[in-house]
Amino acid sequence: MKKIRNKETGFTHAPFLSGIKNGAGFTLLEILIAIFILAVVTTGSFILIRQSVASVSQAQSKLIAAYLAQEGIEIVKNIRDTNWLTPGNTRDDWDEGINIGSDYQLDYQSLEFPDANCSLGAENYLRYDGNFYNCSSASGTNLNTKFKRKISTSYKGFEFSQAYNDSVIRVISTVEWEERGTTKSIEVVGHLFNWYYGY
Fold this sequence. Notes:
The protein has 199 residues and is of the alpha+beta class. The chain has one helix at residues 28-85, and strands at residues 4-5, 12-13, 103-104, 127-128, 133-134, 143-144, 148-155, 168-179, 182-193. The protein has 1 helix and 9 strands; from the N terminus they run ββαβββββββ. The strands form 3 sheets. The chain has a 4-stranded antiparallel β-sheet, with helices on one face. A hairpin with a 6-residue loop joins strand 1 and strand 2. The longest helix is centred in the first third of the chain and has 58 residues, at 28-85. The radius of gyration is 34 Å and the shape is elongated.
């Protein structure tokens, strides 16, 4: 390839660059503006990604908390149903072992309310063993989580008839957790009825 020497500047340039005029390159100011625009776009993208990840984490925590709150209601239902199915129990034994009017912590293995294996304290978090949330002591693969659950019960009276006051138990299951420095909670309310008419 033949190079042509410019007589005015003393520089050589290749003929294939002959379409570019002298001084037509990027100036330092244009390069700085381009870098600034690129930095703004990149920073905005990273902020958006970070907020998306945080939103996914919050949604996951809410979903787990909702399931744990519902499980609290189901645990007390299971105790009621076990009372009906225990040989020798009558229909009137439906609320046996369900302590009314207190806040307790239960797990899926609880057979009575309150459960002696679970205690409700300021630092008593549910634990996760890889499969289930429980209130056993933390050790090995049974690690603390950020969730606390309390279950309270009361008899639900009806205004129209005093006879039904002891036939309905109101169960409130509340799950609390810390998320980004804020205490969050979900509460589920259920009612247990003495509807079984077995023999």
